[in-house]
Amino acid sequence: MKERKAKKKVKKNSPLRIFKLGLVLIIAVLAIVVIRDRFFPKKLVAIVHNNQNISKVEYPFSSNNIMLMDVDSSQFSLEDIKEMVDEADGVVFAGGNDFDPSLYGGNPDLVEDYSREDDEKSIDIFAYAIEKNKPILGICRGMQLINIYYGGSLYDDIKSQYSTEIIHRGDDKTFAYHNVNIRDDSYLKEVIGENQIEVNSFHHEGIRKLADGLDIGAESPDGLIEAIENPYYSYMIGVQWHPEASYDDDEYSRRIFADFIRNMK
Questions:
Q1: For this structure, is 242 an active site residue?
Q2: Is the dihedral of CA 249, 251, 252, 257 positive or negative?
Q3: C-alpha 258: how far from its chain's center?
Q4: Annotation marks residue 49 as catalytic
Q5: pTM of the model
Q6: C-alpha to C-alpha distances, 49 to 27, 55, 57, 141, nearest whole angstrom
Q7: pLDDT digits over 158-211, tens only?
Q8: Are 220 and 179 a contacting pair, CB within 8 Å?
Q9: Residue 204 is a catalytic residue
């Protein structure tokens, strides 16, 4: 009789078996992470604006799997918006129209479109976000809102009231581009990691008197305030430029949003 060949058995603790088990475990963990991130986003951000196109503001969050609430203050009641803010892990106050100059003692002949009713609602929403201690990022109008809320004022028109040394908005209402100098002692310097960067610019108003309690994060070469922060609040940063518009191409814009996301509750 021919002897049957014994089947070659793999030892339970052989390197090959351990490798296979490890590979299966890694694949399982990756699958769980993908499913979790795809179907169960971690955070929720409220983007507050007044009838603006905020698709570019939404992108830095959607691309990082953050859920979004489009909070158009012209479409929702204050009570509804407060409920949205309650649910949010962070609040972005986006760009938009000018402010009613009577809010800060400005010149009505130099401003463009504004709504006193919406301005007051924006201030109430901002106050509620503070009451709920939500992380806050202000962009353009949003930065100006921070300053007005705390008692600061604006230049109604930079070219006629301040300087023409730096172009802050193109004559045909397009983006301009210029450098900003970042303060060494600012939180923004920790986020950006540079003393100077180039930013896009689309505003004809700007901060005139900085509100008490706020710090300057950055200035343009003509001395105009370009970023502010509140050192007495858990997380509050405002930038005058539009990092959402340069998010894809600019590392520093991505750092601003990444830092806000890290600080969302």
A1: yes
A2: positive
A3: 9
A4: no
A5: 0.85
A6: 42, 12, 10, 9
A7: 999 999 999 999 988 899 999 999 999 999 999 999 999 999 999 999 999 999
A8: yes
A9: no
